Amino acid sequence: MRSLPRLLLALGLVAAGLGGAAQAAPTVPTLAALPADAPAVRPYMGWSSWSLQTTSYPGVNPKGRASFLTEANVLKQAEVLARDLKQYGYDYVNIDAGWWHTWGWVPQFDEYGRPKADAEKFPRGIKWLSEQLHRKGLKFGIYQPVGLQKEAFGLDQANRRNFPIHGAPGCTGNDIVYPDWRTTNGWDNAYKIDFAKPCAQKYIDSITTMFGDWQVDFFKLDGVGPGLWKEGPNYDNRPDVAAWRKGLDKTGRKVILEISWSVDIKAIDFWKEHATGWRINTDVECYCPTLVTWQNSVDDRFADLPQWLQHTRPGQWHDLDTLNVGNGVMDGLTPEERRSYLTLWAVTNAPLYIGDDLTQLDSFGKSLLTNREVLAINQNGMPAKPVRTGVDQQVWSVKNADGSHTVALFNLGGAKAPVDAVFAELGITGPAQIRDVWAGADLGTFQHGFTAEVPTHGTRLLKITSGGRPTGVEAEAAESVLTGGAKVSDCAGCSGGRKVGDLGNGSVTLHGITVPRAGGYTVRVGYVSGDPRAFAVGVNGAANINFDLPPTGGWGTPGVAEIVVRLKAGANSLKFSNPGNHAPDLDRVEVVR
User: Fold this and answer.
1) 231 CB-near residues (< 8 Å, 6+ apart)
2) Treating both helix axes as pointing N-terminal to C-terminal, what angle do 198-213 and 238-250 enclose, rounded to 10 degrees?
3) Which residue from 194, 226, 432, 573 has the least number of CB within 10 angstroms?
């Protein structure tokens, strides 16, 4: 083996940068502080049924209100999710309201007052559906409104039919409601449960036990107060939330509990104690011939969100509601609005659950939903915050663990306008290197800031690295060419959250490594290796040069080495392999001088 001309090893660097000194830990709890299998350790990603249920777009709900939700349609969405999107992190399939309703929207209950799936919509039952999703490597989510729905006592509320509570001898529905049959939740369609009564928790447990048998991974509890623009003790559902959390925990499953909708921020300490996520305002859907519109109510989130951001952290996420950017005309948005929509959700670490028809994704929508750099920002556990609010041209920013900044520029106005990212306002010391994340392009070095002409309702998403350090090329970039057994895999500490491995049985060639003139260059290589290994590096198709590399501290710990290679002026390619031997995994490369 040829010895490495220059080797600088820096261990423990995390996602988005390779050079420089290690940065101080962020001030909020980090992802590493939570067990890897904790519920909602990162913002969850997946698909939800409600957006398609609400639209009057032709052909989506052929049997009337919310009729999209059926076993057959869920399986169609799950097939696409598993085949095309699971590899990017989307793995939850959540069925929303209506799974226990008839086509005429009449809720159904079993003899124990528990919701019962409609036999026409779900002929093989919810447990069977959940099993099919889990076999595809997906997770299953379900929905219920808070309170005890009136129809559990029968459709004739003037002559209520009592029912026994499953698994609780001597307990009935009459034993858990208030004597005056007071109502609760955002629609007043349920009786308020009195949790001072011992049978009340047993009723919740009877449902969560059923959910546990169905292997539920996610539960949305809707219509929760305080909040929802309703006041008074009848709409305080904090005891319900605590009871559902207790019941879900008894199943032994790590279930995400999401509360909805527009809950009161003054109760945030309680929400954080019992839930893993909370909706901060009304539905994003427009309940119209499209899924959403910009004004109803995507743009509202720019004003809704800032006060909640101080409470956003791993295991506790604000929920901006469904993401509808993949279906073009049916979305009801311009391409610029679709990109801005996803950008706000991504940079603030909101859960990304798609509401589109996954069988009808257009190419632009799919490119938005599968941009790995953007998804890595969403999953990093550090939400961006606005520099200022109440203006049309907004800048949202966060300092990342590696010292770089993620900066999003938004133009909420009705005409094209300049948006300024002033380094001094963002706490950035110039000069700084700027990368356009959506474009996947390095823009160069800037001294004091950056100004972009942003279209109406448009955005620019930037990564800004002080010191003028280049941002390089990701091994897993779309332009990279993999051969043989080489494959992309997740890597929590790697730049972009991904790496390329199995390079002893294959190779990866990175393109677009651009320099101004021919000559010898130092190239910083980000890699992962649990033991001493070597790369065979081929430059622009030339014969391989072998470089020995020491271990980085483990297969979960990225490290950095510097190698010297000769490059031509303009664009270059670097091929990494180690034919017939073991090679490290490759994270990224960047030319440093």
Assistant:
1) none
2) 50
3) 194
Q: What is the DSSP string of 278-317?
A: EE-SS-S--SSSSS-BTTTBTTTHHHHSGGGGGG-BTTBE
Distance of CA 215 to the CA centre of its chain: 21
- pLDDT confidence of residue 569: 87
Encoding tokens for residue 437?
Answer: 């994340």
Q: What is the residue type of 437?
A: V
- The CA–CA distances, whole Å, from 60 to 73, 340, 349 equal 10, 26, 30
Instruction: Check: CB of residue 575 under 8 Å from CB of residue 507.
Output: yes
CA pair distance 81, 269, nearest whole angstrom: 35
Question: Under 8 Å CB-to-CB from 502, ≥6 apart: which residues?
Answer: 484, 485, 486, 487
How many CB atoms lie under 10 A from the CB of residue 172? 15
Q: What is the pLDDT of residue 420?
A: 95
DSSP state of 109: B
* Portion of the chain with pLDDT greater than 70, in percent: 93
Longest dimension (CA), the chain: 89
Q: What is the DSSP letter of 22?
A: P
Q: Do 402 and 411 touch, CB atoms closer than 8 A? A: no
The distance from CA 527 to its chain's CA centroid, rounded to whole angstroms, is 26
Q: From residue 384, how far is each of 396, 399, 400, 462 by CA, in Å? A: 6, 8, 9, 12
> What is the percent of the chain with per-residue pLDDT over 90, rounded to a whole number?
78
Q: What pLDDT does residue 496 have?
A: 75
Report whether 320 contacts 301 (CB < 8 A): yes
Return phi, psi of residue 57, to 5°. -55, 135
Q: Which residues contact 503 (CB under 8 A, 6 or more apart)?
A: 486, 535, 576, 577, 578, 583, 584, 585, 586
Tokens (6 digits) for 386: 């606005």
**487, containing H or E segment:** strand 487-490
Q: pLDDT by residue (tens digit) across 309-319?
A: 999 999 999 99
Residue 27 C-beta-side C-alpha neighbours within 13 Å: 5
The secondary structure element, H or E, covering residue 91 is none
Instruction: Write out pLDDT tens, residues 544-582.
Output: 899 999 988 778 788 888 899 999 988 899 999 999 899
Per the CB < 8 A criterion, the answer to whether 381 and 349 are in contact is yes
Residue 132 has pLDDT above 70, yes or no: yes
pTM, to two decimals: 0.77
Rounded to whole angstroms, the Cα distance separating 498 from 104 reads: 47
Q: How far apart, in whole angstroms, are the C-alpha atoms of residue 140 and residue 216?
A: 5
Kindly tell me the burial class for residue 104, based on how many C-beta atoms sit within 10 Å of its own C-beta (0-12, 13-18, 19 or more): exposed
